[in-house]
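Sequence design from tokenized structure. All designs in this work follow the same two-part layout: the structure record, then the generated sequence. An example of the structure record is given first.
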């Protein structure tokens, strides 16, 4: 045994060293949350997941392995009902407890605008947005002596985000390919999350420089990892019902590191996983916010059914204020709601408020079907509710009769919504009333 050639001993030693240097890493990953803050619990089979259980589980996994990497491919939010804004707000707050290392931004996460996401200071990345970067392009994490770089490719709605969808996509594609190549050549493990399906991902993304590709699974369940040449394909299930855990080793092949041994575990989150006590206050506040909103909606509906609204609508003003009405019709204000419709945002409460009359106020605009007489920017957007004024033949002053011009405009012409607003130049375009002449 001690007689073997020195060359062979050296090789054994090298192998041994190599083996000793081979560290093991853990990646915990999730797919689209799709607004699932918690399961409805209507059926036992469906009672899986939810942020409260996820927090319990990730806390436990981190206690076992503080070095684990935790990534979400995004798609967190939901924007189908007015109350979804509340749910989305609490989902983003809930992300703080989970303390993800990286979260991808998907189109659905932009439903309430990019600024809505920015407020929460979460580790968002987006590697194919155009224009001024709102989110980090990529994120690199170090574990032991290995670096990991994460990228996100999202299918974004062309009409709202891209000026020239084809050209923008091509240049974003080239840029990502370059970044991935650089990362690979400097010894990084690259992880790309995306909401593309596999066929599209293969076309758009340079798999040869991607170690781990995370795409959505076709259903709520996680799929088994698949190796495509050097890329390990992971397919997390949606709606936060389970967590995927990948354990792997990393090995060097001709200057490039590659995923070596890997093993996947799927952790489901049934009712038996207790809610994390850390989330208790957050969850109580969430339910309280929903209740307040619900009661507000009921009050609005009740008022509408009783036909009582403090708003009259511009048509009612016409009879006594013909010149003002005429002037108003010549401005952009009456078309504010149509313009919202033309960009498909007339169901975003975040937009409707400034493009209609009295939205979110009792008796105000609800939608184009129920309250057509209150769409667009009208007399009462500026003058305040005036039904009582109409009923009294003008004797009761309008709701905002004591407001200064500046204050009236500032309800809407603020910040990014009207960067070039200047009362001196804007008022003349809509001027009416006796004091200023017609
Ligand atoms: C705080 C009030 C406010 C909110 C909220 C708001 N807007 Fe506006 N919007 C304005 C004002 C004011 C203008 C006119 C700006 C100007 O010309 O200076 C405007 C103009 C527009 C126009 C017309 C642009 C044009 O070229 O004529 C569109 C379209 C529009 N907004 C869409 C949206 C969408 C979509 C949202 C929601 C994501 C939104 N707005 C939210 C106040 C608002
Ligand atoms: C974009 C905001 C805005 C809209 C829309 C608007 N107004 Fe005005 N209106 C004003 C402001 C501001 C004044 C105050 C002018 C001043 O102080 O010189 C004014 C003045 C008036 C006056 C004269 C008040 C006075 O004491 O001289 C009347 C009447 C009036 N508006 C009626 C209307 C009617 C009717 C409509 C709808 C057909 C309408 N306004 C739409 C902002 C608006
Ligand atoms: C039946 C006639 C009548 C109708 C309808 C009417 N007004 Fe008037 N309005 C008047 C009279 C009269 C005055 C003057 C009151 C005064 O100077 O004491 C007036 C004054 C105003 C003023 C300036 C004083 C104030 O209260 O702010 C505004 C603004 C105004 N109206 C807006 C409206 C709006 C908006 C509507 C529609 C929702 C409307 N009016 C409908 C008769 C009417
Ligand atoms: C309830 C929200 C709201 C209020 C209050 C409001 N505006 Fe506007 N304004 C808008 C919106 C929305 C548009 C864009 C309409 C469109 O083009 O779709 C707009 C457009 C305009 C435009 C046309 C801009 C252009 O380039 O043609 C002018 C001018 C203007 N507003 C002046 C004013 C002035 C002056 C005041 C205050 C007296 C005022 N607005 C109050 C929402 C508002």
């Amino acid at each position: 045994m001690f007689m073997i050639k020195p060359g062979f001993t050296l090789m054994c030693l090298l192998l041994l060293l190599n083996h000793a240097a081979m560290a093991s890493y853990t990646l915990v990953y999730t797919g689209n949350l799709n607004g699932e803050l918690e399961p409805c619990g209507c059926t036992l089979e469906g009672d899986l997941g939810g942020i409260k259980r996820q927090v319990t589980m990730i806390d436990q996994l981190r206690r076992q392995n503080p070095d684990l990497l935790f990534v979400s491919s995004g798609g967190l939010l939901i924007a189908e009902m007015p109350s979804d804004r509340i749910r989305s707000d609490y989902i983003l707050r809930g992300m703080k407890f989970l303390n993800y290392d990286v979260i991808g931004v998907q189109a659905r996460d932009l439903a309430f605008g990019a600024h809505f996401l920015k407020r929460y200071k979460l580790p968002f990345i987006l590697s194919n947005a155009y224009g001024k970067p709102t989110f980090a392009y990529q994120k690199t994490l170090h574990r032991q002596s290995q670096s990991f770089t994460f990228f996100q490719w999202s299918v974004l709605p062309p009409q709202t985000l891209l000026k020239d969808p084809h050209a923008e996509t091509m240049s974003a594609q080239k840029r990502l390919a370059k970044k991935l190549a650089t990362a690979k050549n400097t010894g990084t493990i690259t992880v790309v999350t995306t909401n593309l399906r596999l066929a599209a991902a293969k076309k758009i993304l340079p798999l040869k420089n991607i170690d781990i590709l995370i795409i959505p699974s076709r259903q709520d369940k996680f799929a088994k990892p698949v190796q495509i040449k050097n890329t390990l394909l992971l397919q997390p299930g949606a709606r936060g019902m389970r967590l995927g855990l990948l354990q792997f080793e990393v090995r060097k092949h001709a200057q490039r590191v590659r995923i070596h041994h890997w093993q996947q575990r799927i952790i489901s989150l049934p009712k038996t996983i207790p809610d994390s006590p850390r989330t208790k206050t957050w969850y109580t506040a969430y339910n309280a916010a929903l209740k307040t909103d619900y009661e507000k909606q009921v009050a609005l509906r009740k008022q509408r059914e009783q036909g009582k609204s403090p708003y009259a609508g511009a048509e009612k003003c016409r009879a006594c204020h013909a010149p003002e009405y005429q002037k108003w019709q010549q401005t952009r204000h009456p078309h504010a709601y149509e313009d919202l419709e033309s960009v498909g945002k007339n169901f975003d409460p975040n937009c409707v408020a400034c493009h209609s009359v009295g939205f979110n106020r009792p008796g105000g605009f609800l939608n184009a079907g129920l309250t057509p007489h209150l769409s667009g920017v009208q007399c009462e957007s500026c003058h305040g509710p005036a039904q009582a004024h109409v009923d009294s033949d003008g004797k009761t002053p309008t709701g905002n009769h004591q407001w200064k011009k500046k204050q009236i405009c500032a309800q809407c012409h603020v910040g990014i919504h009207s960067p070039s607003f200047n009362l001196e130049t804007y008022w003349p375009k809509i001027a009416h009333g006796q004091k200023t002449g017609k």
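Residues 1-20 have pLDDT under 50 and may be disordered. We note this feature because it recurs in several other targets discussed in the main text.
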